[in-house]
Amino acid sequence: MELKKIKIIAIKNISLVGEMLKKEYEKFDRSKIKLKARHEIVTKYDLLSEKMITEEIKKHFPDHQILAEESGYNKNKSDFLWIIDPIDGTTNFSIHNPLWSISVALLYKKEVVLGIILAPMLNELYVAEKGKGAYLNGKKIKVSTTEKDKNINTFCHSRKKSDIKKAVKYFSYQKMNGLDCRQLGSAAIELAYVSCGRIESLVIPGANSWDVAAGVLLVEEAGGIVTDFSNKKWNLESPDIVASNKKNHKNIIRDIKKLNL
């Protein structure tokens, strides 16, 4: 099946899930959260969103492999791999902060060829197809050309204490030496914001593939660059990630080395 047709099916699927989550978000009670780990929560809507997305993929593409945040890999072996984060920014969802998203990527032979990020409460749909650019609600987007002294940097981290310590160290340095550094609470949205020029960078020690796979393609197709902390091109095995508007990438890598992250 052509990638164009796959994209249409995926967008329709994600949009339906987004409508469901919007309704539930409005009435969500935070006392219903569960803890996956000390710094990570899950709601029944993470599970429902994932089920709806994966079932639709299985219906249309029964041979494809799937990696979903809550359920892991399915048993299929295929050149096609779907990577799904059913709600990226679950904590934001739980406290009625609209900065949460659904992130879905399709890889072919380990290369991201389709990336879709939907931020339902912002009414923003980001789509990137390999070699065809990045789009927000159908309009082509580009990374910023902002100079270093005007950068807005963002950060995120895994739940591991060592990664949290690295993130806090990076935040402190950028906050004291740059214009600003923030954690928005959804890596997918942060990558989407890099791709459309709202911010200049995102740094994540301990990046999970489901958080970033779709956003990586968005940034690259919008003219940005994505590497690991060693400045090597990001891949599924990369333990960390730096995404930027390209213009300031060397400076960020330099800061990471200086901080020994």
**What's the N-to-C terminus distance?**
43 Å
What is the fold-level CATH name, i.e. the topology of the largest domain?
Answer: Fructose-1,6-Bisphosphatase, Chain A, domain 1
- The CATH architecture designation of the largest domain is 2-Layer Sandwich
Summed over residues and divided by their number, the pLDDT gives a mean of 93
Q: Find the CATH superfamily of the largest domain.
A: Fructose-1,6-Bisphosphatase, subunit A, domain 1
Largest sheet: 8 strands, mixed
Please state the structural category: alpha+beta
SSE order in H/E notation?
A: HEEHEEEHEEEEEEHEHEHEEH
Please characterize this protein's 3D structure.
It contains 7 helices and 15 strands. The mean pLDDT is 93. The chain has 261 residues and is α+β, with helices and mostly antiparallel strands. The strands form 3 sheets. Strands 4-3-5-6-7-8-9-10 form an 8-stranded mixed sheet, with helices on both faces. The protein has a 5-stranded mixed sheet with strand order 12-11-13-15-14, with helices on both faces. Strands 1-2 form a two-stranded antiparallel sheet. The protein has helices at residues 3-26, 44-60, 90-94, 161-177, 187-195, 209-221, 249-258; strands spanning 34-37, 40-42, 65-68, 72-73, 80-88, 101-108, 111-119, 124-129, 134-136, 139-140, 152-155, 180-182, 201-205, 225-227, 240-244. Strand 7 (111-119) and strand 8 (124-129) form a beta hairpin. The chain folds into 2 domains: 3-140, Fructose-1,6-Bisphosphatase, subunit A, domain 1 (Fructose-1,6-Bisphosphatase, Chain A, domain 1, 2-Layer Sandwich); 148-258, D-Maltodextrin-Binding Protein, domain 2. The longest helix is centred in the N-terminal third of the chain and has 24 residues, at 3-26.
